[in-house]
Task: structure prediction
Amino acid sequence: MGSKSTTKRADALRSIDAIVQAAAECLGRNPEASLSEIARAAGVGRVTLYAHFASRADVVEAAMIRAIDRGNEALDAVDLTGDPLVALARYIEASWHLVDEARALLVAAQRELPAGRIRELHSGPAARVETLVAHGRAEGVFRTDLSIAWLVNVLHSVMNSAADEIRAGRLTSDRAAAHITATVLAAFTTPGRPVPDPGPAA
Result:
């Protein structure tokens, strides 16, 4: 009996994993993807999907958590110590495409989940940038007349704009990180100081 229930549990976990992965992929392409579409992509029936997730909001939240966890793993590998300007450029290089990939998924989440829950889910990545900005302010490199929360918001807004520009055909993917870095450094630099040169905007 024990081994049978273990097998059932393993099957259930496999189904859940397949559903969450399919949800991330389907919603990443189309924020309005239906649960039937997600179930089909996962290779399960709607009955199986509903056995694990009570609602569309639950599916969307699970997909969002997966995307954020994967993003956190990628960003954990980025060295954000040392020179704040170099650390900021490294962070942007590593993270802007994560933002781009998750944009449609975020649209789905904004439709299904309360704003407070979305903020909670993003608290890990947000804390990482807040620490980086605070370090830059302490070193006298980033401006202190605007709040850290606002500067973090500016960074994410510029990343989202870059994703829009790529989709519109006005910016190429390989140039995005340099454009974002140059724009964010201009926004973060203390008024009256020369903006540091982040290097050629490729």
Remarks:
- The two ends are 63 Å apart (CA to CA).
